[in-house]
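Build the 3D complex.
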Amino acid sequence: MTAESALAARAFKKVVALSGGVGGARLVHGLSRVLPPEALTVVVNTGDDFEHWGLHIAPDVDTVVYTLADLAHVERGWGLADESFATLDMVRRYGDDAWFQLGDRDLATHILRTRDLQRGVPLSAITARLAKALGVTCTVLPMADGPCRTMIETEADGTLPFQTWFVSRRTEPKVKRVRFDGRPEAAPGVLDALAEADVIVLPPSNPYVSIDPILSLPGVRDAILTKGHARIVAVSPIVGGLAIKGPLAEMIPALAGAPASAAAVAKHYGAMLAGMVVETGDEAGLASLAPLPVLATRTVMKSRDDSAALARETLAFAAKVLR
Amino acid sequence: MTAESALAARAFKKVVALSGGVGGARLVHGLSRVLPPEALTVVVNTGDDFEHWGLHIAPDVDTVVYTLADLAHVERGWGLADESFATLDMVRRYGDDAWFQLGDRDLATHILRTRDLQRGVPLSAITARLAKALGVTCTVLPMADGPCRTMIETEADGTLPFQTWFVSRRTEPKVKRVRFDGRPEAAPGVLDALAEADVIVLPPSNPYVSIDPILSLPGVRDAILTKGHARIVAVSPIVGGLAIKGPLAEMIPALAGAPASAAAVAKHYGAMLAGMVVETGDEAGLASLAPLPVLATRTVMKSRDDSAALARETLAFAAKVLR
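Done.
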């Protein structure tokens, strides 16, 4: 850790990151290397959660936990690094649903979670227990214990649950609108963490389907505005007009009527935003949003060291912006 | 097939086998090789069924189906031959229940069954679909769609569910009594099959915990007695005073107050029994039960050919006895 980044890490007693899946998890992993465990709380999107084979799947929660535990399959972006697919093979032999790839080790997570949910244990308590068992030391909170389902209203194929649209239909049906079915209370600890946070980091996650579900929960926007000044520093998920992963680049023109850019993402977050971290070269479009502070740097995370470096730079930038 | 056994197979239009797990499944496999598919119905014990990891496990049904599909692990006596245990490893990593060994491929069965049960599909319909998908051509019926749980009342440890006593406690607590919690209707097809059967074969399964649960269901004994004469031919699960597999040799003295023997098993079935197949050397003890017809032969099944040979001999013996 450099002197500057050590300083940045010490500048914040409480950092909250809101996160979707892959991109979010990568920056969160970096933050977990830079901050002491008690200083980091991650609030994870559960709008993508769904039932498959009768099991409760929480893709973003698992991606974040597996990534923090250094067990994730980094290149693939989902599931565990050391994985096999024997159960899936047998399901295929039974002629049953094999469109969603669940690995054998990954299944343990879904099976135990589903069992405990049926026993009445809240998702947040289950997540805390499983994360701890895997050695995760910071706090990981699913955004809510109750269901909030991201639904994709398409132009030609009606309304599809997110996973159906994303995995089974490969994001091909053109998006008209995103809505959330269900508006559960935020999970215990979420509003307090947001209210107390010195800085709220939005990693490069999809604003519409990863961050907005969290922002849609009762009390979340108020908690973010508690201190009376903008505390969000976002890392742009758009690099050179493209999304590193996922369907965001096509969603922005469809939903915001603007080209995919860091500026479009910044506009989306509006007054809550205290600063924006973008890929060098992408800062131009943000000039129109002045006086929004912008850090132009390398934001693409290909390794764990990239993640830690970006986390350090983001915190140092936040420390300056929020001084 | 020899001329004699071909004749025996043709002598019966409808054979019903009642079955527990391993020993039962082996003879049932033999019967399936000797009889045309439409002539064989297997009614399988579900008293051992239980919930594990929130999944509905039906150990005897699965052993019978896997064995009939030539997918069973023959030596081990449970699960699939080609199996891995990655999910179990991960469950262990989570510090959760790892006392019952569920394989990755096997899990597909429990997962799909549990999902369909929760959707309201009866166990019998689920079993039919899964068995068919694995290529099983004869009829396999779980004894009931509703729960009937075998409970072991022990001398010193209170009452234990069967699997807890059998697997987790390794049958160590001494049995005082066996009882069945729940008395559901027999599954669709069970009573008709029993009423119509030319012969009812009891393979070498444990009478107390594999066969009695089936006999305890409403209407089953009446259906067995429909034709007014004994139609059961049983293969003794006791060979030379020992059980080939499982806790039967200790259960007979505890529950019947007699030494473990083929005769004790024959007495247990009483007037329903038309004939008994025993290991050569074990027929002596049965003399006191004359005039019960007895076939002394080799009953230990170590290979699929052993199973088919014993099935042929049993049917030929039944054809003589029931002539």
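Residues 50 and 57 of chain A are 5 Å apart (CA to CA).
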